[in-house]
Design a protein that fits this description.
Layout (H helix, E strand, L loop, with lengths): L3 H38 L3 H22 L9 H24 L2 H8 L2 H11 L7 H23 L3 H26 L4 H23 L9 H24 L2 H7 L2 H14 L5 H19 L2
Helix pairs in contact: 1-3, 1-9, 1-10, 1-11, 2-3, 2-8, 2-9, 3-4, 3-7, 3-8, 4-7, 4-11, 5-7, 6-12
């Protein structure tokens, strides 16, 4: 007979996996709304980032206020650095999703784990094992395979922007690690990211042009903001109750769901090189997490 404590742990791990699957579905919905808002209403990455951040700032700010949490922090410079790099990464990621096949654009965002490992070695002077080095080489081989068809199709700029977004996101995650060591709660990190992202998104949209909100476009903007917040909350719950490695591996379901959505909803064609590149990048991310 299975011990009650063991059954309880198994239920918690199963619940963590379910939360991560839900997060992947919400992230996929966000990506679909981003691509549709651009294709149907010609909205740019700046204003889409703005609306995504407005929703997060309002929801997180209200939740924090109701729970009596404090917004004050002595580490505002670190928050600012993390928020700027995080917003740059998000803006580039949105641009890639808008201008590349969903499979390619979303997968480029997941190169952040590869760049995080590289930055940890270069900037933080962390020692790298032979295993980690091999995983990094595998990941970059996947990037080359994934990007080759995009470059051949004349999508060099969008592909380069998406890859730079992965680098910026990797830099942001490295700073999140620093803020965590300083004792900053996760909600405050995301809240200040939302505030800075609103300002940066608004500034970019002012340069590139705003689009008026209509009854037709409003559902897409609400969908971007709501799905992003729900995905963030579901992911937080997943890591809180589930097995860290299992949850991290299931995060790559966003790539799978987005690829299938791109094929069936947008009629996108995915060649063997893209499929192989996506698989290798996902495998390198999962193998990297296995050693953490």
């Amino acid at each position: 007979m299975t011990h009650p404590a063991t059954r309880s742990k198994e239920r918690q791990e199963l619940l963590g996996s379910a939360w991560m699957i839900a997060a992947a579905l919400f992230f996929t919905l966000m990506n679909l709304c981003i691509k549709a808002a651009h294709q149907q209403f010609a909205m740019g990455s700046g204003e889409l980032v703005f609306w995504r951040m407005v929703f997060a700032a309002v929801v997180l700010g209200a939740m924090a206020k109701m729970q009596g949490k404090t917004f004050a922090t002595p580490h505002w410079k670190s928050h600012l650095n993390r928020s700027i790099s995080g917003t740059v990464g998000m803006t580039c990621g949105f641009y890639a999703v808008m201008h590349l096949p969903l499979a390619t654009g979303v997968t480029l965002a997941y190169t952040s784990s590869i760049f995080l490992a590289v930055l940890s070695v270069v900037v933080l002077r962390e020692r790298i094992s032979a295993y980690t080095f091999a995983v990094l080489l595998l990941g970059f081989a996947g990037v080359v395979l994934l990007l080759k068809p995009s470059f051949a199709a004349g999508q060099e700029w969008a592909a380069a922007v998406g890859l730079f977004g992965g680098l910026a996101a990797g830099w942001a995650y490295m700073q999140v690690r620093e803020l965590s060591l300083l004792g900053e709660p996760a909600w405050r990190v995301v809240f200040y990211l939302s505030l800075v992202g609103m300002a940066m998104g608004a500034a970019l949209a002012t340069l590139t042009g705003w689009h008026s909100i209509s009854l037709q476009s409003a559902p897409y903007l609400i969908g971007i903001g709501a799905s992003a917040v729900l995905a963030q909350l579901a992911m937080t719950h997943a890591y809180a109750v589930g097995r860290k490695f299992t949850v991290a591996a299931l995060a790559y379901l966003t790539v799978v769901f987005s690829t299938l959505a791109g094929i069936f909803l947008f009629g996108e064609q995915i060649g063997w090189q893209e499929w192989l590149g996506i698989g290798i990048i996902a495998a390198s991310g999962i193998l990297s997490g296995l050693k953490k």
